[in-house]
Amino acid sequence: MSGMKLTLLDLVPVTAPGILSPEMMADLSKYLMDTTQVVHRQIQEGSVTIECEYDEVYSAPQVVSMAVSEAQEQELQGVFVNCFGDPGVRAVREKLKMPVFGGFEPAIYLGLGLGDTLGIVTVLKNVVPMIRGAIARAGLEKRVVSVRTLDLPVLELQDREKLMAHLYLECKKAIEEDGVGVLVMGCTGIIGVTDEMRSRLLADGYDVPVLEAAQCAMMLTELYARMGLYQSRQTYMDPPEK
pTM of the predicted model, to two decimals? Predict the structure, then answer.
C-alpha cells in the first residue's frame, strides 16, 4: 500500500492573490508520502477571503463547480477544500465518491486523540459563530472548550512577526485560562507555526500539541484515500435527478 500513487486536490476557496503561496504548498505536503501528488487550484470568482458566513456562502458555488470539474478532468482520489469554514464541503461530498474534507474536522479529530480538552485559535471574532456552530454539529461542546481570536484578518497572516506574537499570547491564554490541552489553528492560512509555537510554550512549561488545520486535512484525506474510504451515502446521498 505504501507504493500506491494518489492525486489529491487542494482547492483554495478564495480569490485573494498570493494566498496559494509556495510556502503553503510546501507546508501542505510536508508529511505526505512521496507517491502522493497534490494538484493546487484556486477559485476565480467568490470572496477575497472567508471571514464570515456571507463569505462562505458566496464562495461555495465556485468550490462545488471546480471540485466536480477537476474530479472529471483529473484522476483524483481525494479533495481538500482549503478553509477552516468548510465552504461547500458537504455539497461536494454528495457529488463525489472520494474523501472530501475542509479544514475543521481533520484537525479536531486528530486532536481528540491527544488530549481531553481542545482549544481553537482563529483569526477574527466574525469567524467564532461559524466555528461554534461546527463544534455543536459535531457534538463536541464538552471537548472543544475554547475558541480564541488573533484579531488579525486573513490577509495579515503573512506578517510573520505579528502573527507569531498574537498567536503565542492567545495559545498561552488558552492553556492557562481555559484549561486547554491541545491547540488547533483555526484557519488554514496559519501555516509553518507548529515547531516554533511548541518550543515557545515548552519553554514556559507547557508541553502541548499544536495542530495546523491544512496539514491535518491533507494527511487525513490521504489516509482515507489509501484505505479506500469515502463519506457514507446514507449521510451524503446522491443529489436527485431533476
Answer: 0.95
